[in-house]
């Protein structure tokens, strides 16, 4: 039992990775659509390259989206509007005729003609309200047919039959002119205008209800294909009706209700493919990024990002499939490149795109666009902390999306008329969403405790609290650190290392000297040397302790581990040679290990660069009369000694790159000492 517990403890990191792998695979499978997948790609506009395809079951032929839209528009254009006729208003108006006539006409006129006038008014009102008086002019064509609703009955009439308010005066004038009452025209008009009220209005609610009923009854299919019928033969071009039939078969196939047995087999298939994809990623990390594989937080971070992108895409697809390109998938390689490197970012991006192929429609087109966009992302974004670079890269990514979509549309449709502006807009929105990568990286730094180039940029500010403290307590060390940072940054740029990381590492590598600043020569301002009263071993101990002290100070100020690595390794396992030789003069049995730095030796290209630059810059202060030849020999001697002591054995730096670093250091030192080229006499 104890042995089992010990093995469990020793392999807990491996067990965690297995658990993380299984959990991620299960969650991704859960998010994938569970219907069957049509096993053929439908190459619109191209010959059918598979075997003859026969209908596996009866299915209906779906109308295309364009056909449905045309049918909807035709229904909307031809729909007959409804108008509501109010019967109460005419009755009310007629009942008020005698009273209004009495009020308007003088008694002298009514005495002999009251019956005639009232009869004329009533007869004219019958004409006004035959089809009703419209309250608002709806600007319809006169010859357009409309429905006039009187109670529960509706009559189809021409729109021109309904009297409009701007036609009332002309109608009344015409009626009065035809009668024998022209001499009392003014009085009659006053009567009519006091009486007449509109009684017809547009019935928008009923009209919309009827229109919606017709739209809801649109058939989305036309015709059927019987089981066993040939759908398409090998070599036939997939276009027109054939394309619609294939699309209908695919839709029917994927929307079928599967039996429990079928469902379980679909889950098994998905599980195998998802697990295989994630396994390839794990194996890649284990083989080529061993330091990441051994860090469970970093592995968790990578898997979390994959799961996050799958979840986000699933949500968008379920909401509206047309917005699938709004998902800023290029954030994934951007983020991984910011925290790790471009190669890992690209590999993870490809794996994620392959998984998303199960979710999105037109998976080949989607995967092609996303992989190309990911490659452009990796190639164009060199320094994410520079905002201009990010905006330029996002513009290039968006342009690649648009060009690729344009090319696919031309291939599928054979013309550019079918390029949809809405899709181009989704690419623009996706590009804008990609800009969210900077705040997202900041959030990731806080959650996962990692560091990106943007954080390194903040740490490189010499006005930061820790560097200000260094400049006050150990000004010589601070000046030395600035010189080393400039040398290291120049060297890193030449061999394509992380220049920002090595610069920050150089600025902080000697912060441990703040504890005993006067014991280091660059901070000694008087002729008195603090080491004169100490034994060589004690002096060496103080010198080597600045590494341990630096690590403690760095952790106290929450510096990232990537920066602390430079403090640990900048002297590797070299010896404090001056005090070792001094001890040897006094004691022939002096042991070199008593004067050795604790290490470890550099384990990356950047930490190796810092070791070289730090040693060369510090030793260059001892040069009395430097010449070009002296500087060349000086640099060669120091770095060759480090190589001889195997200080770069664990660093992934090549001999060629070391030679380039030497060349940069020689040139920079010559510039510092203002040397001219030595010409032969």
TrEMBL record:
Which Gene3D superfamilies does this entry report, sorted A to Z? Hypothetical protein af1432 (1.10.3210.10)
Keyword Thylakoid belongs to the record? no
Q: Which PROSITE patterns match?
A: HD
Q: Which UniProt keywords apply?
A: Membrane, Transmembrane, Transmembrane helix
Q: Is Transit peptide one of the keywords UniProt gives this record?
A: no
SMART domains in UniProt: HDc
**Which residue windows are transmembrane per the record?**
12-32, 265-285, 297-317, 323-339, 344-360, 366-385, 390-411, 423-444
List, for all copies, the residue spans of the domain called HD. Answer: 477-619
Q: What SUPFAM superfamilies does its record include?
A: HD-domain/PDEase-like
Its protein name is HD domain-containing protein
């Amino acid at each position: 039992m104890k042995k089992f517990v010990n093995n469990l403890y020793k392999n807990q990191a491996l067990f965690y990775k297995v658990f993380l792998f299984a959990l991620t695979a299960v969650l991704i499978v859960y998010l994938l659509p569970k219907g069957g997948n049509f096993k053929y790609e439908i190459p619109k506009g191209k010959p059918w390259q598979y075997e003859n395809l026969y209908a596996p079951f009866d299915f209906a032929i779906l109308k295309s989206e364009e056909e449905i839209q045309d049918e909807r528009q035709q229904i909307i254009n031809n729909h007959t509007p409804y108008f509501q006729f109010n019967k109460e208003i005419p009755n009310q108006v007629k009942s008020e005729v005698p009273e209004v006539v009495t009020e308007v006409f003088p008694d002298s006129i009514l005495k002999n003609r009251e019956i005639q006038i009232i009869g004329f008014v009533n007869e004219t009102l019958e004409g006004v309200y035959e089809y009703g008086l419209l309250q608002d002019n709806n600007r319809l064509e006169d010859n357009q047919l409309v429905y006039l609703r009187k109670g529960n009955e509706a009559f189809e009439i021409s729109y021109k039959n309904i009297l409009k308010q701007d036609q009332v005066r002309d109608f009344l004038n015409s009626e009065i002119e035809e009668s024998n009452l022209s001499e009392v025209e003014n009085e009659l008009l006053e009567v009519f205008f006091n009486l007449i009220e509109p009684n017809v209005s547009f019935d928008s609610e009923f009209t919309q209800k009827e229109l919606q009923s017709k739209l809801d009854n649109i058939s989305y299919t036309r015709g059927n294909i019987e089981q066993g019928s040939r759908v398409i033969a090998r070599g036939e071009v997939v276009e027109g009706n054939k394309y619609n039939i294939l699309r209908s078969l695919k839709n029917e196939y994927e929307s079928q209700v599967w039996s429990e047995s079928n469902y379980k087999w679909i889950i098994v298939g998905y599980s195998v493919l998802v697990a295989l994809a994630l396994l390839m990623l794990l194996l890649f990390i284990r083989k080529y990024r061993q330091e990441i594989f051994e860090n469970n937080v970093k592995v968790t971070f990578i898997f979390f990002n994959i799961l996050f992108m799958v979840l986000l895409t699933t949500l968008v697809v379920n909401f509206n499939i047309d917005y699938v390109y709004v998902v800023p998938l290029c954030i994934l390689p951007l983020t991984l490149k910011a925290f790790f490197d471009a190669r890992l970012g690209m590999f993870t991006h490809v794996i994620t795109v392959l998984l998303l192929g199960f979710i999105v429609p037109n998976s080949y087109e989607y995967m092609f666009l996303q992989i190309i966009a990911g490659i452009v992302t990796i190639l164009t974004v060199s320094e994410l902390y520079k905002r201009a670079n990010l905006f330029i890269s996002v513009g290039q990514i968006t342009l690649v999306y648009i060009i690729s979509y344009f090319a696919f549309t031309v291939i599928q449709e054979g013309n550019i008329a079918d390029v949809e502006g809405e899709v181009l807009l989704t690419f623009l929105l996706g590009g804008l969403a990609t800009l969210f990568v900077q705040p997202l990286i900041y959030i990731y730094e806080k959650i996962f405790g990692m560091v990106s180039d943007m954080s390194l940029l903040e740490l490189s500010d010499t006005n930061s609290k820790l560097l200000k403290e260094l400049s006050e307590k150990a000004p010589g060390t601070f000046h030395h650190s600035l010189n080393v940072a400039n040398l290291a940054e120049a060297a890193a740029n030449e061999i394509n290392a992380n220049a920002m990381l090595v610069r920050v590492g150089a600025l902080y590598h000697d912060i441990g000297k703040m504890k005993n600043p006067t014991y280091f020569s660059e901070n000694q301002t008087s002729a008195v040397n603090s080491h004169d009263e100490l034994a060589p071993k004690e002096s060496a101990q103080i010198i080597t302790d600045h590494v341990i002290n630096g690590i403690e100070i760095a952790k106290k100020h929450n510096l990232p581990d990537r920066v602390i690595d430079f403090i640990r390794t900048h002297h590797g396992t070299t010896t404090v040679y001056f005090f070792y030789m001094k001890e040897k003069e006094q004691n022939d049995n002096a042991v070199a290990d008593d004067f050795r730095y604790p290490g470890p030796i550099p384990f990356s290209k950047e930490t190796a660069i810092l070791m070289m630059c730090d040693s060369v810059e510090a030793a260059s202060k001892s040069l009395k009369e430097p010449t070009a030849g002296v500087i060349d020999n000086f640099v060669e001697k120091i770095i060759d000694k480090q190589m001889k002591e195997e200080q770069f054995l664990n660093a992934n730096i090549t001999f060629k790159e070391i030679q380039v670093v030497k060349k940069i250091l020689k040139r920079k030192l010559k510039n510092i000492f203002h040397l001219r080229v030595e010409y032969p006499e």
